[in-house]
Model the fold of this input.
Amino acid sequence: MPPSQGEAMIYCDGASLGNPSSAGVGVIFRDANILCLSVMCGGIGIATNYMAEVLAILYGLDHARRREWSRVWIISDSQAAVKAFK
Done:
């Protein structure tokens, strides 16, 4: 289900090769028409899976703030990371 007009949907994911090990994050930003607004990804060094998931959300929120998107949805496959932000 797409976000409402004026909202951005932020798909976040993070992963590490071990726990802890080399890790990275990826974030996709979409609008109400599901069009891609922006994409970001990168390595974060040595981290656990949980830390990578949390950092993906933080990077996504920071990027949204810099673009002045005040209404966002966060989508993540990590229930633990989402719960940490509630």
Summary: The mean pLDDT is 94. The CA atoms of residues 8 and 72 lie 5 Å apart.
